[in-house]
Amino acid sequence: MREVTDTTTASVEIYDQVYRLRGVDPEHIARLGALVDGKMRAVSAHGATVDSLRVAVLAALNIADELMELRARHRELVASLDRSETHTRSRASSLTNMLDEALGDEYLDRIAV
């Protein structure tokens, strides 16, 4: 179960409308509001629509597209990191075996004592 933390209310202006939102971090809420406002203004600047609901939906689609691209990139990076980790572990094992062979059984017997 998620622990409830203290929340605060912050006012943000999005597309000339003021919204009072609750959250833990007012600065984070302000950044989110600024992002949505910026997207809505960018959409309205490139379109002929003045309907704020339509602008909001188009802005949401733009944000969703960015999110999906970032998630795909994140998956690629995680897969690359996993491959790199596997390669590093394999290489370390190989080097350990080479070192064991180079040092020979006598050395290993001496350090095991």
Descriptive report:
- The structure is a single chain.
- This protein has one domain.
- The chain has a two-stranded antiparallel sheet.
- Helix content is 72%, strand content 12%.
- The radius of gyration is 27 Å and the shape is elongated.
- Helix 1 (26-46) packs across helix 2 (52-111).
- It has helices at 26-46, 52-111; strands at 8-14, 17-23.
- By secondary structure, the protein is of the alpha+beta class.
- It contains two helices and two strands, in the order E-E-H-H.
- It is found in: Cytoplasm.
- One of its GO terms (biological process) is cell division.
- It holds the Pfam family ZapA.
Q: Decide which structural class fits the backbone.
A: alpha+beta
Order of helical and strand elements: EEHH
Please state roughly what percent of the residues sit in beta strands, choosing from under 5%, 5-15%, 15-25%, 25-35%, 35-45% or over 45%. Answer: 5-15%
- So what's the oligomer here? single chain
Number of helices: 2
List keywords for this structure.
113 residues, alpha+beta, two-stranded antiparallel ribbon, 2 strands, 72% helix, cell cycle, cell division, Cell division protein ZapA
